[in-house]
Amino acid sequence: MKRYDSFVMGHISIDENIYQGETVKEIGGAVFYSSCASHAIGHKIGILTKLLPQDRKYLEAFTVFKKDITALDSRNTTSIRNIYYSADRERRTCTALSIADPFTIADIPNNIDSRIYHFAGLISGEFDSEMIKSLHNKGKIALDVQGFLRTVVENKEMVFIDWEKKKEYLPYIDYLKTDAAEAEIMTGIKDRKKAAEMLFEWGAKEIMITHNKEVLIYNGKKHYTCPLKPRNLSGRTGRGDTCFSAYITERLDKRIEEALLFAAALVSLKMEKPGPFKGDRDKVEDYIKKYY
């Protein structure tokens, strides 16, 4: 039996990032940034992904132990073009160039026992939603709602559309992650604190809403916030994935305040350098002492 703190599921993506006329190809995907971050700070991480057999070379980018990566064959590898319009990379147009095959419960290896099952999706339809209910009986469910809202429309552009069955599945989710825009799409409310309260009322146990200035957590009793303090934004891509994964794995044995501070500091440090977080706990603790 393979035992993990978190088993992260999602499509790896071959990203084509365009900013100020310059195109950079790099490995991306929530599964990539999430797993690398939690692994770097000492958590035991397993991965499930799907890609074309000839693209397996891209798995070398993961920092997680290769024996802990379950990579299944797919008719395509997900590839996304991101055109950024602002220096903070908040405004962008995303186009799906290709999409890997969806995940089903049958894709989960029988020898996996994880404390958290993390749905780290990129595009609506990536997961059979019934996986949420099935895995709920095995461990805590962590879900990034991006993988259930971001939808490919006719011209292959990706737009955010509300999750039709959110009220059916939110009660099965222990840790729910949205950004400010996604929270507004789901609730119709701009105020992040009020949006988090509504998501809690619909059944999610602990809600994270990320914003370019701070991270908010709500557990039904209290709102917790922590600022982000990066010194530059050259590693902005993967911010939310990194923050959420660090938080949920730290949360396994820490109180909300501690886990939130650690995750906010870690992602602030990560945003200063492109690629996944490759530091360690000491670097995060040093960052906290200096800037928090």
TrEMBL record:
Signal peptide region: none
Segments forming a coiled coil: none
Keyword NAD: no
Keyword Nucleus: no
Domain Carbohydrate kinase PfkB: 162-276
Keyword vocabulary terms for this entry: Kinase, Transferase
SUPFAM superfamilies in UniProt: Ribokinase-like (SSF53613)
MF (Gene Ontology): kinase activity
Recorded family membership: Belongs to the carbohydrate kinase PfkB family.
Protein name (record): Ribokinase
